[in-house]
Design brief:
The protein contains 4 helices and 11 strands. The protein is of the alpha/beta class. The protein has one domain: Rossmann fold. It starts with a helix and ends with a strand. The chain has a 7-stranded mixed sheet, sandwiched between helices. Helix content is about 25%, strand content about 25%. Strand 2 and strand 3 form a beta hairpin. It is an enzyme of class 6 (ligase).
Amino acid sequence: MLKKELRLKYKKLRKELTSEEIQDMSLNIANNCLSLPVWDKTYFHLFLSIEEQREVNTEYLLQILSGRDKEIIISKSQFGPTNEETGWQTRKMIHFLLTDNTKIQKNEYNIPEPVDGIEVPSNKIDVVFVPLLAYDKKGHRVGYGKGFYDGFLSECKEEVIKIGLSCFDPEEAISDVRENDIALDFCVTPYGIFEFK
């Protein structure tokens, strides 16, 4: 299936989940993350869930990470000017260390973000939990199509571990994967872990 079709399909599937189902699935996903081979790492990048998009609630995972004294990094999206030649808007993520003093606000897209804080370079991050709408059996993912995570992941070190979180199983294949799309290493669902080689 094409990314465009998958976006529509999974937005619809998500809408059909009750808040209670999302909470239960999110808790199971967080517990399943305990089986990942990542707990010797230090710097973990976590997305803060967009409730309105019915994303996996990462609050449970956040509690596990802080309980294990991990350095937690969260991001702020920057929408830059549009390139006249390509028509593309420059989009970047700035990463901040999550501390007790971090002030979080929702942006215009309802994404909870840090206002400011201690900046962390992308190449320092060991593990990235990646939001997604769909993914396939090779670890290719479909996001919201804004390109934030593709840009961010391309700045990370080569050995960074990329982990998707999803309430659903993988699709057989995404038919319009691009060369610069960065695949996941794992995807964690309420029912187990998919590993991609």
